[in-house]
Amino acid sequence: MAAGICGILLGCLGVHKFILGYNTEGIIMLAVSLLTCGFGATIMAIVGIIEGVIYLTKTDQQFVQEYVVNKKGWL
After folding, report:
1. What is the pTM of this model?
2. How many domains does the chain have?
3. pLDDT (tens digit, 9 = 90+) per residue, 47-74?
4. If you placed Cys at 6, which of 14, 16, 37, 68 could pair as Cys (CB 3.0 to 4.6 Å)?
5. What is the largest CA-CA distance in the chain?
C-alpha cells in the first residue's frame, strides 16, 4: 500500500521503487528526473502514477507474486 501511494504522490522521484527494493529502477527514475532539469520528471511522474494505481488495484497475492517473488521491476 505504501508503494502504491508513494508511486502516485512521489512517482517522479522513484520512491516507490526504493520501497520495494528495486534500487536500480529507483536510481534510473531519480536520475532522469534530475538530469533532465525536470523535463523527464513529467514522464517519470506518469509512470509512477500508473504503477501506483496498478499496485493498489492488485490483490495481496497478485502483488506478492509479481513484485516480491518474481521481482517485476517495471509496470
Report:
1. 0.86
2. 1
3. 999 999 999 999 999 999 999 999 988 8
4. 16
5. 38
